[in-house]
Amino acid sequence: MSVAVLICLTRPSLRRGRLAGAARVxxxxxxxxxxxxxxxxxxxxxxxxxxxxxxxxxxxxxxxESARNFFYKNYSTPDQxxxxxxxAQRENLxxxxxxxxxxxxxxxxxxxxxxxxxxxxxxxxASKKPVILMKPFGSTKAAPKAILDLASEIVEWDERALVDAxxxxxxxxxxxxWDTIEFKLD
Length: 186
Hints:
The chain has 186 residues and is of the alpha/beta class. The protein has two domains: 1-33, no CATH class; 43-171, 3-Layer(aba) Sandwich (Rossmann fold). It has six helices and seven strands. The radius of gyration is 19 Å and the shape is globular. 23% of the residues are buried.
């Protein structure tokens, strides 16, 4: 019986700075766990908030829920504020952001909660978490430059663009989708 060495590289093993998951397996189908998005392996997300569920916050979930074959786990808990103390809030936000694979940033929070949104994005960047910035919903106003510089990608309010950005930045999955436009020749 021939034996091949199969090496599975996963994001956590790369962060520890060593090859983990090396195994000797018989030739044949790979027994390596894939990092593709599935119901058993959802993308871990944090959506920026200011300790309230704004319309844009809820709208993100409408977009994510309407996506086919996209699975996620939400780590943001805006309904559980830790209290009024600023450092307690920041520590709670750090705990929410730490286990995630990607952060969805709502630029609409900037006007009313500039410090809180900037803190969340700076912590995500320091933790090497990709930030997907959502442009202001229903507005032609551009997102502020201060938060544009902290984003890995800036997307419109479009379910497909949001899901593709999350797959790319969280799991390095490129979308193989393309549009077909049908038109009638006269």
